Amino acid sequence: MKERRRISIHPLVVPTVFFFLWMGQLKFFLWMLLFVTIHEVCHCIVAFCFGAKMRRITLTPLGEQAEIKGMEGLSYWKRQSILLAGPLASFLLGFLLGIGFGKEELAWMNYLVGGFNMLPFMPMDGGGIALNFFGKRNGTLRTMNILKKVSAGFGYFLILVGCIQVLLYPYHISLLLIGSYFVSVNKKGYLTYTYYIYKELLHPHKKIMPIRKILLEKNTTLGETVLRMNIDYYFLFFNEREGELHTKSQLEIMQQLLQEGVSGKVWGE
Question: CA angle, 118 as apex, 116 and 119 as ends, to 5°?
Answer without folding.
Answer: 70
